[in-house]
Write a structure and sequence with these properties.
The complex is a heterodimer of chains A (159) and B (743).
Chain A: E1 2-7, E2 10-15, H1 22-29, E3 48-51, E4 54-57, E5 70-72, H2 80-91, H3 101-114, H4 120-127, H5 137-150
Parallel strand pairs in A: 1-5
Antiparallel strand pairs in A: 1-2, 3-4, 3-5
Chain B: E1 10-12, E2 15-16, H1 17-28, H2 46-50, E3 55-56, E4 60-62, E5 68-72, H3 81-93, E6 100-104, H4 131-158, E7 165-168, E8 171-174, E9 179-182, H5 183-191, H6 220-224, E10 240-245, E11 253-258, H7 260-264, E12 268-274, E13 277-282, H8 285-293, E14 296-300, H9 309-319, E15 326-331, H10 334-339, E16 343-351, E17 363-369, E18 372-377, H11 382-393, E19 400-404, H12 420-431, E20 438-441, H13 444-449, E21 457-465, E22 471-480, H14 499-502, H15 506-509, E23 514-521, H16 536-554, H17 558-564, H18 570-583, E24 595-604, E25 607-618, E26 621-632, H19 639-658, E27 664-665, E28 668-669, E29 688-693, H20 711-723, H21 734-742
Parallel strand pairs in B: 5-6, 10-20, 18-19, 22-23, 26-29
Antiparallel strand pairs in B: 1-2, 3-4, 4-5, 7-8, 8-9, 10-13, 11-14, 12-13, 15-23, 16-21, 17-18, 17-20, 21-22, 24-25, 25-26, 27-28
Helix pairs in contact in B: 3-4, 4-5, 11-12, 16-20, 19-20
Classes of the chains: A alpha+beta (159), B alpha+beta (743).
């Protein structure tokens, strides 16, 4: 069955099961491998992508649910918040094994889009869905603060 | 440290390590000798890339484009080896950090063997926190040798004395003549020179990169932009994806299966039996997984483990009473000393099975042809994986090539004697006749229920102090499975004791005159494995909790009490004093609002780590507010990586302290995914973690694991400090501990 997807501003038409999770469509059929498989149950956040700018777990999102929506993966992340997050991630050497970090970056970028100056508590709340078994959490907190400091303040404070 | 003393052991029944490696060994045995150009010993892959104009050795390659590539024989699993090993080479080479690159070595022993595992280097692998320690001398030599050859090449080209040439930040220069050249410009000429037999290594006081506080990791960018390739990201033309249905109980086998429904799932291409289960292969992961969901298998469970963990623990308690425990340590006269002691503590400790749960579930890709098998994986144990893949495919080990990719975490999981996931993917490739490349993915459920756990353990400790506040008697029984019995590493068992099951008990560190420590092996088909810091994951807990309780019984401050038993261990004492100073141990500590603090220290993998944990207990909830950590790991090659490893190890240990447990009911694992196998999330990570590194000129020792053991007892001690409740069962359950304290 044919499914139409818009990923990183490119349109694709795939002959796949409409119930296939978005994760496997973008990995196995679009060869965008930056988004990772970690649990398959929306428990770890490794598969986080943006759908119309919101952080979503692609491992439990059927492709049929995102037709007509804009999917952004780590490969297409180019928002000011996303760039600031990635710059801070590199600058503070956040990653260890690195496997979860695409998901961490996507969640952090989404957080900073809605809350430009998050507190530690805001960060903990927004990032608690992303597991890192290397426990890079201390640096994730620092990097989000650093990215927030580099972004121009916006009026969209929330969360 | 595990993997010690492999000498004489067979890697596989009937195949000695010596036989397997003789050919390779002969090929490279003259490597260290004079006259052999480094280019002649190029590893596979490097030769083609070098194109004849590079200065290349098995460990470092300098290309005309002025990049310096370190060929890394260890897997990068997050511990920072892709930064640490290039730092060592760059230091002796006087390279610029910006020109450094890294790539994985192929599987080849003894060339890329781990000398910390055995002196002959017959096993290539990463573990026991040995990567930097085992590469230290080798890579300093490689870097210094390449530097000397670049200098010689420059001297010849410029007709100046080599002694007048300087090398700094990747630039070779002769100040009198004003000549300058990059490494890349000199590489081709240098490659034609004979390899010098003796090169001078730097005095540590001259180090510029080693020990530099903030040297950027070489892998941070790729890992922050989704560009790092892991095994799960390998895409080969025509590749299919496999998942395996394995026995629901450990020790079970396939009796028969019916693939009719599975094969009817669109996208499923094959269903094949392999030694460890039945594989469903599809054009993508979704098809394969849907096919597996409807696969019908009848299992033969005649040899399966049908006990639950409560029954197993009850059995372990009985085993602890056995008179025939194997001797781990015995000194003096325990019984007499106990009779004369002032205070005695008798305690039981229980430790659950633990899954490693790396974020990248086990994944491997295999491409099989009649005379070759290529494996892509985050291999931690290349030589063993090569042998097991050879066994699975019927090829010879040297027909199996291993492409080691970054591992999405391992914590020990990817180094297992049967190479479970590598064997599976090789078996699947064999079963389908190599007609397409195949990628095997373990789901998270496969990972959590799939075994190779940190073993269930039971400890019984009886210890006593005299009137002078000295521990005079210490008896301990440890009951648990062996990590190596029945594996190719069984030769590590000496006098009936598996060192990986008992390493790190109190008499190893503290001065105690009367000691009786014994180990009783438990048996089960449940497969077990080293889990970040191995035996220390449990021995450090009983040791440091008991010492804290003994200090209290003696009426002595916990730090002072430990120091009084560390008189022959000045290195330990220095680490403990440092952590106490940095934590403000001698300053008043407010215990308002449920606060408490605790300390613990453990030597593991050649390094000493002490930690002070500050907690707040609210109701039955433990929150760790602050951890101060001191570490002596010899020379800290990359201090920021050391800090990262301590931070991460604290988080990994906290997950075990607060949540981690695999339990079984009637032989079935109760947990399947992260909703049941709870791990640490960011909201539980202490807001303050300080890491202090003891300055040292000793050769580097382990960093990946040693941060894990102390945190669990430090938190237990902090909770007792806050509440008076003794936590001796993992994971900590304060409600249960309070209830049993009242009984």
């Amino acid at each position: 069955m044919s499914v139409k997807l818009t990923v990183n501003n490119l349109q694709h038409e795939l002959d796949i099961d409409p119930n296939m999770p978005l994760l496997w469509a973008i990995r196995d059929h679009l060869q965008l491998t930056g988004t990772k498989f970690g649990c398959g149950m929306a428990l770890c956040g490794a598969c986080t992508v943006h759908i119309d700018g919101q952080a979503v777990r692609s491992c439990v999102t059927p492709v049929s649910a995102v037709e007509g929506k804009k999917v952004t993966t780590i490969e297409g992340l180019d928002t000011p918040a996303g760039k600031a997050v990635q710059s801070a991630w590199v600058g503070l050497d956040v990653p260890q094994c690195g496997y979860c970090q695409s998901g961490q970056v996507m969640s952090a970028a989404a957080l900073l889009t809605t809350n430009s100056k998050p507190s530690d508590a805001d960060i903990d709340a927004a990032m608690a869905g992303n597991i890192c078994r290397c426990a890079t959490y201390a640096r994730i907190r620092n990097a989000i603060h650093q990215a927030a400091n580099e972004l121009p303040a916006t009026s969209t404070r929330g969360g | 440290m595990y993997f010690r003393n492999l000498k004489g052991s067979s890697l596989w029944p009937g195949v000695s390590a010596a036989e397997l490696t003789r050919r390779d060994f002969l090929k490279f045995t003259t490597l260290a000798g004079a006259g052999l150009t480094l280019a002649a010993a190029l590893p596979e892959g490097a030769a083609a890339a070098a194109g004849g104009s590079a200065l290349a050795s098995p460990f470092v390659r300098i290309d005309p484009d002025n990049t310096v590539t370190v060929i890394c024989k260890h897997v990068e699993a997050g511990q920072g080896v892709w930064t640490g090993l290039p730092t060592i080479v760059a230091e002796e080479l006087d390279a610029s950090w910006a020109q450094m690159r890294v790539e994985s070595a192929p599987a080849k022993v003894p060339l890329y063997g781990n000398f910390a595992f055995d002196p002959k280097g017959s096993v290539q692998g990463t573990g026991g926190s040995t990567a930097v320690a085992n590469s230290w001398a080798q890579l300093r030599q490689a870097g210094a040798t390449a530097r000397a050859m670049l200098v010689q090449a420059a001297a010849a080209q410029w007709h100046v004395p080599a002694a007048e040439i300087t090398v700094n930040e990747g630039v070779v220069a002769h100040s009198k003549s004003g000549k300058r050249a990059s490494f890349g410009e000199l590489a081709a000429r240098a490659a034609k020179l004979p390899v010098p037999t003796e090169v001078k290594l730097k005095d540590p006081s001259q180090f510029k990169l080693i020990g530099r506080d903030k040297l950027p990791r070489l892998d941070s960018h790729a890992k922050s932009f989704g560009q790092q390739q892991f095994a799960i990201d390998v895409m080969l033309p025509g590749m299919m994806t496999a998942v395996v249905l394995r026995p629901p109980r450990f020790g079970g086998k396939v009796a028969s299966f019916d693939a009719t429904q599975a094969k009817a799932v669109p996208g499923v291409v094959d269903v094949v039996q392999i030694p460890r289960g039945v594989a469903v292969i599809g054009r993508d992961m979704w098809s394969a997984k849907k096919g597996r969901d409807v696969l019908q298998v009848t299992w033969d469970e005649s040899g399966a483990e049908k006990r639950g963990t409560p029954e197993m623990m009850a059995d372990y308690k009985k085993l602890s009473q056995a008179a025939d425990a194997a001797k781990v340590a015995r000194e003096g006269d325990f019984e007499s000393a106990l009779k004369n002691a002032a205070h005695t503590i008798d305690a039981e400790f229980e430790f659950p099975y633990l899954a490693h749960a790396p974020m990248e579930p086990l994944t491997a890709v295999a491409r099989l042809s009649p005379d070759k098998c290529e494996i892509w994986a985050g291999c931690q144990f290349q030589t063993v994986d090569q042998l097991n893949a050879a066994m699975a495919t019927g090829l010879k080990p040297d027909q199996v090539s291993i492409i080691t990719l970054a591992a999405g975490g391992t914590f020990g999981r990817r180094a297992n004697p049967e190479s479970d996931y590598i064997s599976e993917v090789a078996s699947i490739a064999k079963a389908v006749g190599g007609k397409y490349p195949v990628r095997l993915i373990w789901t998270r459920e496969d990972d959590i229920t799939g075994g190779r756990y940190r073993p269930l353990n039971y400890h019984r400790v009886t210890a006593a102090v005299d009137r002078n506040g000295k521990v005079v008697a210490y008896k301990q029984r440890i009951v648990g499975q062996s990590l190596v019995a029945g594996t190719p590493f069984a030769a590590m068992i000496k006098d009936g004791v598996d060192p990986t099951a008992v390493e790190g008990t109190a008499p190893e560190q503290y001065e105690i005159p009367n000691v009786d420590v014994g180990w009783k092996q438990a048996n089960s088909p449940i497969p077990v494995l080293w889990w970040r810091s191995v035996g220390h994951t449990h021995t450090a807990v009983s040791k440091e909790v008991i010492f804290d309780e003994l200090a209290e019984a003696a009426g002595v401050d916990p730090v002072a009490f430990r120091l009084a038993h560390l008189e022959k261990h000045p290195r330990h004492a220095a680490v403990l004093r440092l952590v106490a100073e940095k934590a403000g141990w001698d300053k008043p500590f407010s215990k308002d609002k449920g606060r408490g603090r605790g300390v613990a220290i453990q030597e593991s993998f050649g390094s000493v780590v002490a930690q002070v944990a500050e907690v707040t207990v609210t109701g039955d909830t433990i929150k760790v507010d602050r951890v101060v950590c001191a570490v002596d790991c010899g020379i800290a090659v990359n201090p920021d990586v050391v800090r990262a490893q301590m931070q991460g190890a604290i988080g990994y240990g906290l997950a075990a302290a607060l949540h981690g447990k695999i339990t079984l009911t009637d032989g079935h694992v109760d947990q399947t995914n992260f909703h049941q196998y709870t791990v640490l999330r960011i909201n539980e990570m202490p807001r303050e973690i300080e890491v202090h590194i003891v300055p040292s000129t000793n050769a580097p020792s382990g960093v990946g694991e040693p941060g894990t053991p102390p945190i669990v007892p430090a938190v237990a001690n902090a909770v007792r400090n806050a509440t008076g409740i003794k936590l001796r069962k993992l994971p900590f359950d304060l409600a249960e501990a309070r209830a049993s304290a009242k009984v």
